[in-house]
Specification:
The complex is a heterodimer. Chain A contains 2 helices and 10 strands; from the N terminus they run ααββββββββββ. In chain A, strands 1, 2, 3, 4, 5, 6, 7, 8, 9 and 10 form a 10-stranded mixed β-sheet that branches. Helices cover about 15% and strands about 45% of the residues of chain A. Chain A is an alpha+beta fold. Chain B has one domain. Chain B is built from 9 helices and no strands. The relative contact order of chain B is 0.13. Classes of the chains: A alpha+beta, B mainly alpha. At the A-B interface, helix 1, helix 2 and strand 10 of A face helix 2, helix 3, helix 4, helix 6 and helix 7 of B.
Chain lengths: ~160, ~180
Amino acid sequence: MERQHNEVADPAGSGDDRLIEELRGAARRFDPLPESVREAARASLTWRTVDAELAALAFDSAVEPSTNARSSGDSRLLTFSAPGFSVEMEVAAMGIRRRLVGQVVPPQGARIEVRHPGGVVIVEADELGRFSAEGVSAGPVSLRCRPAAGTTTSAIITEWVLL
Amino acid sequence: MGGSMDVRDLARAAAAGDQHGWNGLVERFGELVWSTVRAHGLRSDDSADVVQTTWLRLAEQLHRLQDEHDRLGVWLAATAKRESQRLLRSGTPATAVGEETDAKPAGGPTSSADNLVWWVIHDLPEHCRRLLRILMSTPPPSYEEVAAALDLPVDGIAHARAECLEEFRRRMAGIGITA
């Protein structure tokens, strides 16, 4: 059997290798990658953006141990940071929908595209940088922010997060 | 498909927006990402979401990951692991794969031993269940990919694998089946 580079295997080619290969067959039969998930993975390329700066996820209250960062029991606080620009977002879950309330920092008007594999919702941040979006489907979300007027000429996109 | 396509070639093409190259990456690493998520015990719908989030992140960052094009499996496994952990820590209920699904294999089981194998795997202690689930990915993962998927040190993997397979055999023998 042809080996992949550095594949986990016993150099002596033992019964363990044969057993794992049988188990691999069981996984292919019982729990393979669903075709719909494979299709969604293929389609993910269309969301690629090369002309924007990436704002990384800097804070996620869902995984922070301290509880005073949470604004309320059902809300989640997220912060995305890029040099000179950040977005804070509070996410409230309502069944399979999400309500997003956000703040652009430093405060400024901006066009916000709420990107989701199911579609794009466009909202405006006011001159104080505040914005909100209702009825966003649960799932992966990324914001694309275009400051209305400012020093940054390119858009900023936030790292994809599963809401 | 598979080993003969250099991952770096696929990554370079995909980074330039080529759908063929991207599809090649999905073919090569799709099962690894899926196995990593399943090893963390997420339900079907959560698993699909985490897998998609992982690939969306790669699409976003691929052209910024030039240095990592020959380690994409490691990057993908680490990302899938982190996103799985993030979801679990945010309070999503986790269910072991065997429990949540009736897990009828496509085309029906080839033998009742198939069902037993699956059941025994999911009855193993969690660290073995996770390790074996990752190792059961096609094509076989590298040591680094396994380590990235599970937060295990690379040099512990060979030993853990041997131990967990021995435990699996022991339990199969306990129900009268030699594996």
